[in-house]
Amino acid sequence: MIQTFTNTQDDVIRYLYNETSNQENQLIEEALLHDYDLLDFYLDCADIKTGLDKVQLSPSDRAIDKILDFSRNYQPKN
Question: Domain limits of the chain?
Protein backbone atom coordinates (compact mmCIF):
# COMPACT_ATOMS: atom_id res chain seq x y z
CA MET A 1 0.00 0.00 0.00
CA ILE A 2 1.37 3.40 -0.97
CA GLN A 3 0.73 6.19 1.50
CA THR A 4 -0.22 9.50 -0.04
CA PHE A 5 0.59 12.78 1.60
CA THR A 6 -2.06 15.41 2.02
CA ASN A 7 0.53 18.21 1.82
CA THR A 8 3.46 16.72 -0.03
CA GLN A 9 5.40 19.99 -0.22
CA ASP A 10 4.91 20.49 3.51
CA ASP A 11 6.27 16.99 4.08
CA VAL A 12 9.33 17.79 1.95
CA ILE A 13 10.02 20.88 4.06
CA ARG A 14 9.63 18.83 7.24
CA TYR A 15 12.03 16.29 5.70
CA LEU A 16 14.61 19.02 5.02
CA TYR A 17 14.49 20.07 8.66
CA ASN A 18 14.66 16.47 9.97
CA GLU A 19 11.13 16.64 11.39
CA THR A 20 9.91 13.39 9.85
CA SER A 21 9.92 9.84 11.14
CA ASN A 22 11.96 7.06 9.56
CA GLN A 23 8.82 5.71 7.90
CA GLU A 24 7.97 9.15 6.50
CA ASN A 25 11.56 9.54 5.28
CA GLN A 26 11.25 6.33 3.27
CA LEU A 27 7.96 7.42 1.73
CA ILE A 28 9.24 10.89 0.89
CA GLU A 29 12.46 9.53 -0.61
CA GLU A 30 10.43 7.11 -2.73
CA ALA A 31 8.20 9.98 -3.88
CA LEU A 32 11.28 12.04 -4.78
CA LEU A 33 12.55 9.21 -6.98
CA HIS A 34 9.37 9.13 -9.05
CA ASP A 35 8.03 12.69 -9.02
CA TYR A 36 10.35 15.09 -10.85
CA ASP A 37 8.28 18.15 -9.92
CA LEU A 38 8.57 17.18 -6.28
CA LEU A 39 12.31 16.63 -6.72
CA ASP A 40 12.65 20.11 -8.24
CA PHE A 41 10.74 21.53 -5.28
CA TYR A 42 13.04 19.66 -2.88
CA LEU A 43 16.19 20.92 -4.61
CA ASP A 44 14.89 24.50 -4.66
CA CYS A 45 14.02 24.31 -0.96
CA ALA A 46 17.42 22.82 -0.13
CA ASP A 47 19.10 25.75 -1.89
CA ILE A 48 16.90 28.24 -0.04
CA LYS A 49 17.58 26.52 3.29
CA THR A 50 21.33 26.68 2.65
CA GLY A 51 21.06 30.40 1.95
CA LEU A 52 18.93 31.03 5.02
CA ASP A 53 21.37 29.11 7.20
CA LYS A 54 24.06 31.61 6.14
CA VAL A 55 22.04 34.69 7.13
CA GLN A 56 23.65 36.64 9.93
CA LEU A 57 21.01 37.68 12.43
CA SER A 58 23.25 39.59 14.79
CA PRO A 59 24.02 43.26 14.11
CA SER A 60 27.17 44.03 12.19
CA ASP A 61 30.19 45.56 13.91
CA ARG A 62 29.56 48.73 11.90
CA ALA A 63 26.02 49.04 13.29
CA ILE A 64 27.27 48.54 16.84
CA ASP A 65 30.01 51.15 16.31
CA LYS A 66 27.43 53.68 15.09
CA ILE A 67 25.26 53.10 18.16
CA LEU A 68 28.25 53.45 20.48
CA ASP A 69 29.41 56.63 18.71
CA PHE A 70 25.95 58.12 19.03
CA SER A 71 25.74 57.32 22.73
CA ARG A 72 29.24 58.72 23.42
CA ASN A 73 28.36 62.00 21.70
CA TYR A 74 24.79 62.28 22.93
CA GLN A 75 24.07 65.46 24.85
CA PRO A 76 20.62 65.72 26.36
CA LYS A 77 18.70 68.93 25.81
CA ASN A 78 18.01 70.90 28.98
Answer: 8-73
User: For residue 1, what pLDDT band results from cuts at 50, 70 and 90?
Assistant: very low
Cα angle 10-11-17, degrees, rounded to a multiple of 5:
95
Which pLDDT does position 56 carry in this prediction? 74
pTM metric for this prediction: 0.64
Q: What are phi and psi of 56, to 5 degrees?
A: -95, 115
Contact call for residues 60 and 30 (beta carbons, < 8 A): no
Tell me the CA distances in angstroms from 8 to 14, 43, 63, one per residue in order. 10, 14, 42
Torsion of CA 11, 16, 19, 22, to 10 degrees: 80
Neighbouring CB atoms inside 10 A of 32's CB total 18
Averaged pLDDT, 4-31: 89
